[in-house]
Backbone:
């Protein structure tokens, strides 16, 4: 499943992501409610794992927005240190599908996620014909990406990227505004974990940053998040000036 994790505690966020990615899920981290809400405008997730207390709003506020603005079914699992029965009831009544008390325990978390996954519609049968969908292309400002053709362009001009560079760029733009961990990138791009001391990922990130000119002049900003990964943000014209 595609899972968004909303958690402002880096250690807890990393733990939850490690558990879920280890089970084969694609996870994106968010540290604030507004970041997640912004991302939901252009990205699709099957499950949201929400903390209750956040720097800018509550998990209650986030789930209210989700239920009011998103037509597609999105599952919500609250993961909070609020253990009182009244807190759990409030979260479920607000629109949560399940509730789990911190700290995240691997077996319980995976069991709850697996149970929630059974509520999702069955995937369409596979076909030998690959039909492009909205998920196969991304447009962010002056940037265009086509995943099927492995093509990238900036202001209509093609940008030559090697296959793994394209996959990294596509992952960053697909998760615009969210933190993409090093583990997630290496798993998606290389299909395995790299030795953490390896400079392979850093070299590819540097190439992507340079070739795509990921800088404020092009209304984007790529930030390295210490110990976590990378976050690509879209800047408005005023912020980029």
Residues:
């Amino acid at each position: 499943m595609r899972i968004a994790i909303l958690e402002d505690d880096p250690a807890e966020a990393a733990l939850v992501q490690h558990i879920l990615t280890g089970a084969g899920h694609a996870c994106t981290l968010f540290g604030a409610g507004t970041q997640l809400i912004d991302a939901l405008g252009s990205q699709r997730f099957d499950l949201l794992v929400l903390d209750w207390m956040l720097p800018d709003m509550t998990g209650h506020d986030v789930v209210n927005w989700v239920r009011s603005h998103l037509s597609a079914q999105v599952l919500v699992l609250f993961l909070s240190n609020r253990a009182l029965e009244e807190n759990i009831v409030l979260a479920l009544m607000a629109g949560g599908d399940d509730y789990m008390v911190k700290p995240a325990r691997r077996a319980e978390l995976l069991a709850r996620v697996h149970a929630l996954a059974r509520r999702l519609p069955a995937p369409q049968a596979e076909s030998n014909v690959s039909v492009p969908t909205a998920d196969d292309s991304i447009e962010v400002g002056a940037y265009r990406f086509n995943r099927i053709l492995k093509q990238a362009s900036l202001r209509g001009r093609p940008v030559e990227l090697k296959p793994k560079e394209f996959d990294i760029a596509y992952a960053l733009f697909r998760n615009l505004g969210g933190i993409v961990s090093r583990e997630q990138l290496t798993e998606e791009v290389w299909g395995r974990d790299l030795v953490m001391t390896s400079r392979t990922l850093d070299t590819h990130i540097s190439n992507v940053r340079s070739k795509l000119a990921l800088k404020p002049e092009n209304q984007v900003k790529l930030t390295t998040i210490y110990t976590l990964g990378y976050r690509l943000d879209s800047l408005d014209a005023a912020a980029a000036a």
Observations:
- The radius of gyration is 18 Å.
- Residues 219 and 235 are 5 Å apart (CA to CA).
